[in-house]
């Protein structure tokens, strides 16, 4: 069995979905702070919405968070 499947076989994971608003003056900072908050508070993951019309480039930001975090899962959510 894959280690990820085994890890969540008997528990529920809790993650944060975050991102800036369209008018946020510092969208990059919002994303980084939200991802770091997920890590610091012990959540299992951080996810960003992926919609080209109203969100920053998801994979650039998730890559930056991957560099700064050690434990959480990161991913995109298409909506």
Topology:
Layout: H1 3-8, E1 15-17, H2 27-40, E2 45-50, H3 58-68, E3 73-78
Helix pairs in contact: 2-3
Question: How would you describe this protein?
Answer:
By secondary structure, this protein is of the alpha/beta class. Helices cover 39% and strands 19% of the residues. It contains three helices and three strands; from the N terminus they run H-E-H-E-H-E. It has helices spanning 3-8, 27-40, 58-68, and strands at 15-17, 45-50, 73-78. Helix 2 (27-40) crosses helix 3. The longest helix is centred in the middle third of the chain and has 14 residues, at 27-40. It is globular and about 45 Å long. The protein starts with a helix and ends with a strand. The model has no long low-confidence stretch (mean pLDDT 90).
Strand content: 15-25%
CA-atom Rg in angstroms:
13 Å
Largest sheet: 3 strands, parallel
Estimated structural class? alpha/beta
Mean pLDDT: 90
Reading the helices and strands in chain order gives: HEHEHE
Shape: globular
Strand order of the largest sheet: 1-2-3
Which descriptors apply to this entry?
79 residues, alpha/beta, 3 strands, 19% strand
Sum this structure up briefly.
The protein contains three helices and three strands.
């Amino acid at each position: 069995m894959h280690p990820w499947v085994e890890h969540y076989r008997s528990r529920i994971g809790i993650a944060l979905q975050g991102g800036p608003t369209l008018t946020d003056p510092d969208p990059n900072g919002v994303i980084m702070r939200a991802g770091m908050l997920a890590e610091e508070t012990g959540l299992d993951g951080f996810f960003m919405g992926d919609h080209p019309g109203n969100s920053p480039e998801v994979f650039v930001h998730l890559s930056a968070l991957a560099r700064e975090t050690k434990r959480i899962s990161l991913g995109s959510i298409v909506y």
